[in-house]
Design goal:
The protein is 34% helix and 30% strand. By secondary structure, the protein is of the alpha+beta class.
Length: 100
Amino acid sequence: MVKGYWVAGLKITDQAKYDAYRAVNSEAFHKYGGRFLVRGGAYETPAGTAWPRNIVIEFPSYEAAKACYSSPEYKKALDARGDGVEINVVIVEGYDGPQP
């Protein structure tokens, strides 16, 4: 089964709201098998424009990634975050084909 991913870039505009979000988002991630591959950290931007914070979360399937985002558990986290970030999230299906 092909994995699914959330690829997110964000700018924190209200640290307290972002902290409230982080305090409750693990419920949804645990339920749907989410696992952080990237959670902030150093980065370079060789092309384009980067967000100040970059996140990649792996899920066991594309379907699990989509279900997590629309779940009641994640809705609770989004409500806690409110307008505390500017964000871009892409849910993408992984690739399991031939490699170079």
